[in-house]
Amino acid sequence: MYLDLNIPWPTHHLNYLLQQSSKKSKQTHSNPSKSHQTNIDIWHGISPQEKQNLRDLVECAIKLGYSVIAFNLIIPQSLDPLLLAPHFPFPDDQPPFADLDPRTCSNSNSNHFDKTILQLSRLTLVMDEKGPSGAKGVFGFASSQATYLSQYSILSLMPLDSVAFSHACLSLSTPSPTGIDLISLDLASSSKLPFQMQLSTVSQALKNHVLFELNYSPTTSANRYLSYSSTNFPIVASSTNCRRNLVSGAKDLIRVTNCGKGLVISSGAKTWSELRSGDDVVNFMNVVGISHEFAKKATTANPKAIVSKARSTRLTHKGVISNPIVVVSSLVNSESSTSLSSKDHGHINKNDGPLKRGFASTDSQTTSDSFVEDFKPSKRIKNQSS
């Protein structure tokens, strides 16, 4: 199954949040989790045209064979994430397009598609060393934001300089409720990154199971790309060299990630015309310099592992992904060998945790029901209580 973990969420209606003082925002959003649950309105301030554009993107992704997408809200480090509580993310049982999501499509009769797509939420923090001293996100996500951040499926960071990149790889990649899952790089804005990616620094992030994201939309968007800043929301920019810049930067990223073993390839598409099928993306990455095997994993196995790892880290105690199983003593000798042999041959054991069962089921191309099951609200409550 193919996954696209970067469908940018509109941000122009959130510009007023940047103008609010930090003292006022702390008083207004002292209890973000409660306000998020009662007053959330993801479509407030978004025009009907933008909403239709997002729906066209989702429908196109379904037609191209994708099973999972993530709506990515990209914010500067100068913005306190708690201010976003009334706007984002959406609850698990209320995805942006309920008739297109397998968790909620049974409650709607307006879906004319035979297939559905799992819709996840993602938050990306754009960071550099020049952020204001009083900003919440200068050093990444704060522990006081853990309750709010746990509502996101994925947390990621985009470093703009060497200090932010090193901090992301060495410190923020450590597994924790506020730790990051992906490091996304802006490869299209310039001919080369403003910092050098050291192999030892990248290796530490990969050791902590944090992967690096490459977005291909600058090659399919008629010389348009998103320009990022640590003080403002991203804006659309134009350059005739963005394709060349992306390919050049991608080769450097492939080099430091051991021939692309630690990559996740996403679209970053702003319109449906910028999307490409998973097979087309694999072929494009072959041209850039990644083998077919690793390119395939970068669009399937790697993003799926990131989603499951992110969820287990934030919704369970210290990343434990399944409940302990009590085995009756009289059955130990008779069942232990059978259980081990079934696991060795890749069979699904009924006693395995929900995420492990999801991995085993989604490795086949016939169904992704078990993977989707882990994202239902009932499963979320069960994990939190345990």
From TrEMBL:
GO terms for biological process: tRNA processing. Residues 20-40, 337-386 are annotated as: Disordered. It comes from the Eukaryota. It is found in: Nucleus. Coiled coil: none annotated. Residues 342-355 have a biased composition (Basic and acidic residues). SUPFAM superfamilies: PHP domain-like. GO terms for molecular function: RNA binding. Its main location: nucleus. The keyword Lyase does not apply. One of its GO terms (cellular component) is nucleolar ribonuclease P complex. InterPro entries: Pol/histidinol_Pase-like, RNase_P_p30. Keywords: tRNA processing. Residues 28-40, 361-370 have a biased composition (Polar residues). Belongs to the eukaryotic/archaeal RNase P protein component 3 family. This is Uncharacterized protein.
